[in-house]
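ok trying this again, last paste got cut off
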Amino acid sequence: MSRIPQYKPDDFNPILDIDWAGKSTIKKELNDFFIEPLQVLKDAKTPSQPHRKTVNDFVFIRKGSLEKMVCSSLYGVEEGMIMLLPPHKIRTFIHYTPDVEGFYCHFSNDFIAEGPGLKYLQDILNHADIIYNPTLILDDEHRDRIFLILQQMETLYHENQSLDLIRLYLFTLLGEIRHFIEKLPRPNLSVNETLVFRFRKLITSQIQNLHSVKEFADLLNVSPNHLNKSVKSVTGKTASEIINESLLMEAKALLSLSHLSVSEIAFALGVDDVSYFSRFFKKHSGMSPSDYRKGIDLS
């Protein structure tokens, strides 16, 4: 079975119970680009279920705040902050304040394939991976310029203007974020921090195939003991705890897909013994897979 299916924008409705397609004035382009003021969240039902998307997305906060969980880490996004996430990250929308203002935007890699957009985006995502934080606290200068760019993008989009023009504004936006990052002190990672960075990147791509510390240590060309010590010194958690957290998030995301049985989910996660999977899930979540799924249905 393949990895967890990612939601395409025209299938976003279940995430927050918002009709995104109905809000798009250019519905045929919804899977490539979309922008909307955050007031759209007044109709949202939170928290969402863990999910992935087929697009990059970001939120810019002008007022108020919101909370998102990315993989197993919780992040607050407040006034003057931006959070940008790539498609493969599991995210869960937790909470927002009633006064939240700003913008939500998503775009596909294909939408920015021609021009400098992909290079700018990769530089931004690399920075987020290194500091293990997808949020940025912008200075006043960049905050004001980014807000003006977003206002113009939103106006052009909802006036059904040329997407080519909107794409140029998006390039400028990504360039502004990249410029802000370039002004920040460059992270000077220790040997342990570099190893943990590589470990987390590996988990993202291999969690459905590998579950033991030894398997990850072998791919990283270190001993399990060395990996554990490095991870513990940097994160305060053991390597096994981080692996289990990631596996649990994958399981929760799959359990939100009602057409998959528990045994199919266990198989998709590389666990042949369904009983072991159920015990694992209950140990780390406090409920059985079936009870967790019932909770999703009730919500």
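PB: full thing came through this time. Strands lie at 33-37, 56-63, 65-70, 73-78, 81-85, 91-96, 101-107, 135-137.
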